[in-house]
Amino acid sequence: MILSWRRASTLSIVLLLGGLASTAQAENEFSREQLEVMAGGCASCHGTDGRLAGAVPAIAGRPASLLESRMLAFKADEVEDTTVMNRIAKGFSDEELAALARHFAENPGPQGDVP
Amino acid sequence: MSQHDDRTRHTRRPGLTRRQLLQGMGAASTLPLLGGIAPFAIANGSAGRVVVIGGGFGGATAAKYLKRANPAIEVTLVEPAEVFYTCPFSNLFLGGLRDMRSIAHGYDELRDRYGVRVVHSLAEDVDPDGHRVHLANGETLAYDRLVLSPGIDFRWNGLEGYDEAAAELAPHAWKAGAQSELLRRQLEAMDDGGTFVMVAPENPYRCPPGPYERASLVAHYFSQHKPNSKVLILDAKDSFSKQGLFTAGWERLYGDRIEWVGLSDDGRVTRVDAENLEVETEFGTRHRADVLNVIPPQKAGFIAERAGVTDDSGWVPVKPATFESERVRDVYVVGDATVAAPMPKSGFCANNQAKVVAAAIAAELSGRSAPEPYWTNTCYSLIGPEYGISVAGVYRVQEGVIAEVEGAGGLSPADAPDHIRALEAEYAVGWYNAICQDTWGTSV
User: Is there a single domain that holds both residue B72 and residue B170?
Assistant: First the structure.
């Protein structure tokens, strides 16, 4: 199929807007309360609010993009020497993982430093 | 009169049922309701009274997360012990890899940082109609919502010959503390060449992989200090949690030191003679132990029975989305006492269930609907100090029941190389530190 430049750019704007809209929707999809519950399991290994550093690393205060890409990589079995995070990440949708990444990024890091 | 008593005077009368309360609201419907805040909370700035019974993984977490959700909720935690010893990692103590202090936790942070009122007494009775809890110290606590994290009790004599007196000779050590110390002393006193016999129960029971981790770490202790000694597990079932991983690890680390006899091979013990350290199986085989560890049949902790939330099985059925009792209104139950399969009876699950309950109660007390539940579980087991395995699961409510999310969770790979087993052993320690920080916040 050959698209005219005009149609192609209209299409890409539509796609772009669609993408933006779904991103905005994802950000508002879960209430704070809902995120707290969704993140409840994370704290059981990473400490309250994901702030405990140790054999299991702290996840609070890290950039959302990094946390998200890391969790998606776990989910896709793309991280070498993974033990349990691949099994856990598969229990969440990509949207949930993205929301969790933003949630932990907003928490202060282990020393209380806000990124 | 204490400040607490003073506050409770102004709150909802405990005898008032929800229906009466709603009728009352109807009569006073001209009064403005601020943001859906329940009327009993308006008088004094309290967002409601929650009593939590049991200070283990479920109860301590519930108390903390209720306060995190809304500091205006008055939270009272009732737990007899001032120091709580965790069952997780008590097998490391038995194996000589940790001291008891390292598995001891206290309640200072819950009290001082989160504002939980901690009462060190035994909850003796619950009056669900009156919304009251009676304590052994004579105090009566009124509640709007009650959280029970009662753990387990043993069915004494459910296994013939095994009662509380027998447990002083053949310890269960299935509640950590004095029993763990007794069993450890017996292992230390045992002559080399002896046999440690463990009686493993049928399902369901607290911590499905626990008996097999214990067998592993006792074998580890023997391999270091009593090289001619054996471990014999007599099991009332034909399969057990992480069986393939345990069996492979045992062979790898301990050769034939550990012998497991399942139900079909006459492994089910039907009678215990604790004085002679002897057990008898279904088909009459007698086994003599040098140290005898009996993990007896179990049921929900007794306060669950007093509250009327248990069913004929002795465990507690709950509504999947909120863990409110199916039988008694305004009573929520978490942890090993509940019927929550496919979630196992683990400290991790109790901790996660408590967070869901805390969020549900906090939402409900402010007139909002509870968030969707999410639960996760990871159970690490140590076969040796540098050899860890795990099973994980992610759980949601699907079609009205608790279900494991398909494609997620599962076991450590059967063919994992040594460095992965070592990593899992490291993460097991990281997990223990984290969940205890998340639950109690303080070590003692």
Answer: no
Asked whether the bond before B150 is cis by omega within 30 degrees of 0, the reply is: no
Sort out which chain B residues have CB atoms less than 8 A from A87's CB and list them: 392, 408-410
Among residues B161, B155, B156, B171, the alpha carbon closest in space to that of B292 is found at: B171
B171 and B274 in one domain? yes
Answer yes or no: do B40 and B145 share one domain.
yes
B398 CB-near residues (< 8 Å, 6+ apart) = none
CATH number at B289 reads 3.50.50.60
Give the minimum alpha-carbon distance from B276 to chain A in angstroms, rounded to a whole number: 43
B185 lies in some domain? yes
Residues B8 and B146 in one domain: yes
Task: Characterise B251 by phi-psi region: left (phi > 0), alpha (psi -120 to 50), beta (else).
Answer: alpha
Least Cα distance to B46 among B25, B75, B20, B21 occurs for B75
- The verdict on residue B201 lying in a domain is yes
How far is the alpha carbon of B271 from chain A, nearest alpha carbon, in Å?
39
Residue of B nearest to A48 (CA): B438
Among the listed residues B412, B348, B401, the one whose alpha carbon sits nearest the alpha carbon of residue B373: B401
Residues B39 and B27 in one domain: yes
Q: Is residue B100 part of a domain?
A: yes
Q: Walk across the sheet containing B123-127 and list its strands.
A: B123-127, B132-135, B140-142
Q: Alpha-carbon distance B148 to B337, whole Å? A: 9
Pairing type for strands B195-200 and B230-235 reads parallel
DSSP state of B201: P
Q: Is B264 on the interface with A (CB under 8 A)?
A: no
Q: For every one of its 444 residues, what pLDDT tens digit does chain B have, with 9 covering 90 and above?
A: 333 433 333 333 344 444 444 443 433 333 434 433 444 444 468 999 999 999 999 999 999 999 999 999 999 999 999 999 999 999 999 999 999 999 999 999 999 999 999 999 999 999 999 999 999 999 999 999 999 999 999 999 999 999 999 999 999 999 999 999 999 999 999 999 999 999 999 999 999 999 999 999 999 999 999 999 999 999 999 999 999 999 999 999 999 999 999 999 999 999 999 999 999 999 999 999 999 999 999 999 999 999 999 999 999 999 999 999 999 999 999 999 999 999 999 999 999 999 999 999 999 999 999 999 999 999 999 999 999 999 999 999 999 999 999 999 999 999 999 999 999 999 999 999 999 999 999 754
Give the chain B residue nearest A41 (alpha carbons): B376
- Domain extent at residue B244: 156-296
